[in-house]
Automatic annotation (TrEMBL), chain A:
Compartments where located: Membrane
Gene Ontology CC entries for this record: ATP-binding cassette (ABC) transporter complex
Protein's membrane topology: Multi-pass membrane protein
Residue ranges of the TM segments: 21-40, 52-76, 97-121, 133-154, 166-184, 218-238
Main location: membrane
One example GO MF annotation: ABC-type transporter activity
Organism: Gracilibacillus halotolerans
Entry protein name: ABC-2 type transport system permease protein
Hydrolase among keywords: no
Species lineage: Bacteria, Bacillati, Bacillota, Bacilli, Bacillales
PANTHER family with a match to the protein in the record: NODULATION PROTEIN J
ABC transmembrane type-2 domain span: 20-242
From TrEMBL, chain B:
Domain ABC transporter residues, every copy: 5-229
Alphabetical keyword list: ATP-binding, Nucleotide-binding, Transport
Taxonomic lineage: Bacteria, Bacillati, Bacillota, Bacilli, Bacillales
Pfam families given in the database record: ABC_tran (PF00005)
Keyword flag Mitochondrion: no
Protein name per the record: ABC-2 type transport system ATP-binding protein
Record carries keyword Transport: yes
Family matches, as PROSITE patterns: ABC_TRANSPORTER_1, ABC_TRANSPORTER_2
MF-aspect GO terms: ATP binding; ATP hydrolysis activity
Length: 245, 300
């Protein structure tokens, strides 16, 4: 257990020192948040609800990004450089290595959530009940699991360049179709129908419901769990195939 | 004697090519063994199988009598692979501390610094900012961190400068004196000769010789006594001796090929031959090596 804690601590330090993380996961969402709630006057009935809604969008956007990209790309890097191979001759087991990465990543997510929520309070005076703050934060943490699974799927790729390219495109596509940048109603009807079957919308919607004083819809949970299972099985299958040398 | 490494009929095929072909040997506690061979001889593949990083096509490896992938084994071994890659965005000190936490009885930071020659300012550097030589030093430290009983080094001195190389071998000798078992691969013949007390020679995936360096040399290299003389010397006098295989004259020097140079010298002195500038030449392992490889080729 001590090993896993140590390992997680190091993984955490590494993510926080990564300039890409700071840019994509903290700076970008906060800048977007300010731009779309302060500078552009988005026509909404209720400015306060919009400020809270978009705060959730940006937090989801941030956590989704580091789930897909940070861990996935790092896994590819470590494998292509021979580090993963080297870890196999140390007493650290594959399981410990992997769970430490997941754990470290989760702590980083907590950090992102706290920073972006704080930005929301500072810039727009977003006010939610303590229960709503905690509930939405926990939702964002838990519902990020399918995206971590996508990250580990990205992590099975052979080349770092491919992993970076594909995960970026995937990330932005998911963000747009999930209604994270702009509410989903502004998308064409066809796109909206497709989005209903993609995971990002459901990730966001859970949090949007919470800040409106409701519970995430059952549909949100079911679809996210479905994606989690599919991506986990797929990435475990590929990993196993790669291991047989 | 306690057998620490047990390799049984190890074979590895990649597609149709046999990278390692039916290699068997065992290594006892405290031995320093060089796995020697030209590039592509199967040294790295053998080492990877010994470490459980590659599955053998046939045969098996046991370390301390167990599968090399067992945690109990991993706690007792230290490894430096070729081309050390390090986890990035962390400082050298952090990675060493992290590794110290993996093992039940790690060496202290001070001890590691002393053994590997890591410098204070290097400890505070991020791993991705290190030069090749510095990375090797960190790799060496990571191999030693768990105070292992059995050490593996795959081509350890490639890319080290002379000072680094000397410190590396000094440390290896110090560890050997403490009873550690050391296995290293190299294609530097001199290194194998200087450091090891046993050489396992690989060629085209097979073990073609396995003996102490002197024995390999003695068996497989020619030795000779040569001298200058103004008198004509009866070649027969030498040839009738059992230990002489050939006598010839070349560039004013008489060469006596033998497997016992001392006996030749004795003959020269007891017969009171009028000779000068006597030279005794023993074949170096380089010769043994190319010879071994050549004979092997002839056979196959």
């Amino acid at each position: 257990m001590k090993i896993v804690i140590n390992q997680s601590r190091i993984e955490m330090i590494r993510v926080l020192r990564n300039p890409y993380y700071l840019f994509w996961s903290l700076a970008m969402p906060i800048v977007f948040y300010i731009v779309f709630t302060k500078i552009f006057d988005v026509e909404t009935a209720d400015k306060e609800v919009w400020a809270a809604h978009y705060l959730m969008s940006m937090t989801v956007f941030s956590v989704m990004g580091s789930s897909i990209m940070t861990m996935g790309i790092r896994l590819v890097e470590e494998r292509s450089q021979g580090w993963t191979r080297y870890m196999r001759v140390t007493p650290l087991s594959d399981f410990q290595y992997f769970s430490a990465k997941m754990f470290g990543q989760t702590v980083v997510h907590v950090c992102s959530i706290v920073v972006i929520f704080t930005a929301g309070i500072l810039f727009n005076g977003v006010r939610l009940s303590i229960f709503e703050w905690l509930f939405s934060a926990s939702w964002i943490l838990l519902a990020s699991l399918p995206f971590l699974a996508i990250g580990s799927l990205v992590g099975t790729m052979k080349r770092v360049d491919t992993a970076i390219g594909i995960s970026n495109v995937l990330y932005l596509l998911l963000a747009v179709t999930g209604g994270l940048w702009m509410p989903i109603d502004v998308l064409p009807k066809v796109m909206q129908n497709i989005s209903m079957w993609l995971p990002a919308y459901h990730f966001g919607n859970g949090a949007w419901e919470i800040v409106r004083g409701q519970l995430p819809e059952l549909q949100n949970i079911l679809i996210l769990v479905g994606y989690l299972v599919v991506f986990m099985v797929l990435s475990m299958y590929i990993r196993r195939k790669q291991d047989v040398v | 004697m306690e057998s620490i490494v047990e390799i049984k009929k190890l074979t590895k095929k990649f597609k149709k090519e046999k990278a390692v072909d039916n290699a068997s040997f065992s290594i006892q506690k405290g031995e320093i063994v060089a796995i020697l061979g030209p590039n592509g001889a199967g040294k790295t593949t053998t080492m990877s199988m010994m470490l459980g990083l590659l599955h053998p096509t046939e045969g098996e490896t046991l370390l301390f009598g167990m599968d090399p992938r067992e945690r109990a084994v991993r706690e007792k071994i230290g490894v430096m692979l070729q081309e050390v890659s390090l986890m990035d965005t962390i400082k050298v000190r952090e990675i060493i501390q992290l590794f110290r936490s993996y093992y039940p009885n790690p060496l202290s930071m001070e001890e590691l610094i002393r053994l590997t020659g890591l410098k204070k300012e290097e400890l505070n550097k991020r791993t991705e900012k290190l030069s090749g030589g510095q990375k090797r030093r960190v790799g060496f430290a990571l191999a030693l961190v768990g105070n292992p009983d059995l050490l593996f080094f795959d081509e350890p001195t490639v890319g080290m400068d002379i000072t680094a190389r000397k410190l590396f071998w000094d440390t290896i000798n110090e560890l050997a004196a403490k009873g550690k078992t050391i296995i290293f691969s190299t294609h530097y013949l001199q290194e194998a000769d200087d450091i090891s007390d046993r050489i396992i020679l690989f060629h085209e995936g097979r073990v073609i010789a396995d003996a102490e360096p002197d024995l390999i040399k003695k068996q497989l290299t020619k030795q000779s006594v040569s001298f200058i003389t103004e008198h004509s010397i009866s070649e027969k006098m030498f040839l009738q001796e059992a230990f002489v295989t050939d006598v010839f004259k070349k560039d004013e020097r008489v060469h006596v090929i033998t497997d016992d140079t001392d006996a030749v010298l004795q003959t020269i002195f007891t017969s009171n031959l009028d000779v000068s500038d006597i030279r005794v030449e023993k074949g170096r392992l380089d010769d043994a090596f190319s010879q071994l490889v050549d004979t092997e080729k002839d056979v196959s």
